[in-house]
Records
---
Amino acid sequence: MDQAEEKKSDAQKAMEKLLKEGFLTRAKAAKCGICTGMDGD
Amino acid sequence: MPANSFYFQWHITDVCGNRCKHCYITEFNKQQVSLATAEGIMADMKGCCEALDAEATLSVTGGDPLTHPEIWAILKEARKFTKKLAVLGNPELLSAENIGKLKNAGVDKYQFSLDGMESTHDAIRRPGSFKRTLAGIRSLVQAGIHVVVNSTVSGINYHEMVDVMKLSYDLGASKWSFARWVPESGTCGISAQEYSKFLKEIFELQKSFKSDGTTFLAGDSLMNSVILEPAPCDGVTTGCALGSSALCVLPDNTVMACRRHKDSMLGKWKKSGDLLDFFLFNPKMEVYRQTDKIVGCNKCGFKSQCRGCRALAYVNNGDTFGTDPQCVLINKQPQKE
């Protein structure tokens, strides 16, 4: 596996972990109007 | 359609005509991102979202973003990768010509700040700001651009927020929201008990303004304990965005996990791929995701939906995982502010 493929694979694994924990889906859930935690929404 | 969603808050300049008392810009260095760098950052935002299978929401702000000499080129480019494009700005430069340009650029919404009724707002911002803001809201509503009004709430103005909310909707705002002031240290000057009462009052009153044209507000993670039912579960479903699904970029290309959390600087954006790297692999982000370390939240039924404000916890306790000073579920004893 070359460096670029390895990086892509690491990113995929990290993303899957975040999805499992709910982190990455949080903003979508926030469409009900909950603040993003920042100004602007 | 992407499965996920990701929020970028991008401060393209720190040039601003105001010097608001609560502003988290402490050094107005007249920094602004160059167009070439801006194009690189936007390409990276797009790439980051593609890698995360996420739809991008982008808020372009400052300083006053309309002071940036390349604002129209930036918005035009931004619109190519997101339909959810907002400008968080000031009213001063909203000439008829610029309003037309905002519309042509496809800006979905424009956010103003109202931090109280006239005397309070002008004392926080500058004389005349209140009237200029109202005129700006009217002009954009008339032009068909969604207007959001956001209020920074603290001990000196929260009593006026009901009036500010009513005024905002009367003027035609699509949404009024609020966020607590994050001071350099300490709290925003409202006790947990007072804040809980405030949230309930706002929640009840806002219902009467809800219509097809308005968006239900929340504005604060702590509001979830008022509007939602407890939902104990592992992980997060909504609430504080720290470490979650958002990044902030400053005019000098510093990337932060949250603009309000002053210790959340992750590094400088330098090249394509940096945003995804910061989000997925930055050690601070990995720490922020250890939500089991948050003092007082583990046994709370709202943890997956709330977790308080970590920025306020940090300035109050010196610890990101400290208690949120306005959480009434943790701070049951009356506080002296």
---
Amino acid sequence: MTAASGARATSASAAVPGSATPALAARDVSVVLSGRRILSGVDLTVGAGEVVALLGANGSGKSTLVKACLGIVPLAGGRVELFGDRQGDAPWPRIGYVPQRQAAATGVPTTALEVVRAGALSDGARRGLFGGRWRRATRDAALEALAAMDLAHAADRPVQELSGGQHQRVLIARALVRRPDLLVLDEPTTGIDLATIEAFVATIGRMRAAGTSVLVVLHETEAFAPLLDRAVVLRHGRVVHDGQLPPAHPGHGGAPGHVHEHAHPHAEPYRAEPVIGLSDVAPDAMGGEE
Amino acid sequence: MIVEILTSQLMQRALVAAVLVGAAAPVVGTFLVQRRLALLGDGIGHIALTGVAAGWLVGAVVGLTPRDVLALPGAMVAAVLGAVAIEWVRAKGRITGDVALAILFYGGIAGGVLLIQIAGGTSSNLMSYLFGSIATVSTGDLVWTAGLALLVLAVGIGLRGPLFAVSNDEDFARASGLPVQLLTSLLAALAAVTVTVAMRVVGLLLVSALMIVPVATAQAFARSFSRTMAWASGIGVVVSIAGLCLTYAYDLPPGALIVVLAIALYAIASAVAHHRRARLTAPGDDGAPPSEVDDVHLRDHDDADGEQGEACRT
């Protein structure tokens, strides 16, 4: 994506980590869902221009934390500020969210372009565009975002016909279309082939260089490692690590219940894992809830 | 015969009502199908029956003539309240959508039958509301029907961007700062207005069919949300006109005939679409350029999802 809208320029000037209002500041966040405490007393900060990975085993509360930060699930305690504003008054057009991909899309046929344009709704309102002008502007922006995800050819195809990986890329494009200053990604690389992940990481790298802050939930940090400023590790709904990316766990690939099916089309033999393991911070984390 | 139909004043009124309702109902239905609330219209239809009876009761108490003059406003109020309540309960997560709908179904019918008896009528008074009575559409009814149908069309089409966003992915809409609760309540209210408007044409028990069946038909061949909506609306108009004209020639109940026509069209469209799909889907032919062939690639615990990878359902 080409950067450089007006909004981008202002945020880029504040891109030095720590020197400006953080893009995301969650303090003492607790979440209770159907009587179960999912998160307790979680602090999470994403500084301006920072790229932060959110790690942890399945069921540790990563997705819930992301949703709590974005107001999708209610807070039972604590507070969240986005760009210095209370969550209720957050500058939503500056925030792009890529949810974890649901099972195959169903329902009314919907083209990739239609899905991506839904991401440009609040952006159009911010720029005072409505009606026909909004439609033209969002169409171009949506096509550009799809092209960035190498999906320009699929713009007019129903997402119901797309593969899982292609659908995931449509959701990423929907978040990119408003050129967010904070990008929140929930396992964005699940089910996507390596070449596309590399392209995606390169896109994120360019956005980061332009000052975009990123919070990304990951299972494998391999592809993202060069971009990550910091890693936060959750375990049973609490933060157990906040700092440098923990070193790789040599035994990770053989962890029980952890099946890898990497068969890269252009593959060297599968490398034994420059992937983060959690044993240093959470000895039993890989043992696996679930 | 066509001239005859067009010059009959009764038929003119009925046609105008049918065209507007036929056009508006599927527009709301498209959003409902996308939200997987295809049965919401049914639940609202049942609760509207209580409203009809409540309107009678008020009319009887106040001594209005005819006694059913408040039936339509009563249905409208009950339907909107019921629809918004169901959305609210669902959003609070106190109850799942299907259980909430079930309670509306039973409560609506029971309340209607109870109240009509108390109002001094019998449940047979409710028949024309249950199954439609387009022949009894008066000029006053027509003005209401037309105005409300146009309102539904205007709101449904004018706000289709935000309404699509909440119907397509509620979480994402919330994270975009859209007023999700307001929009879902608005959609429920639109559905409620549609139900009351369509009540005279097809009847409360069949209202939902006019919202949903044309959408199901359009889904069989349309390839985008906006085209599905446009086609569904068109199909709604066509079956409404066709059903009405046929009942002019043959003595058949118009509401039921309109719904049967819609379902027949659905059957034909699905059969044709199925046949076409079977012919088109050669292995590896999903319309994507060759570079996409290797797209299936599982990064992590995703084996189950990934299986579906490129097995495209074209």
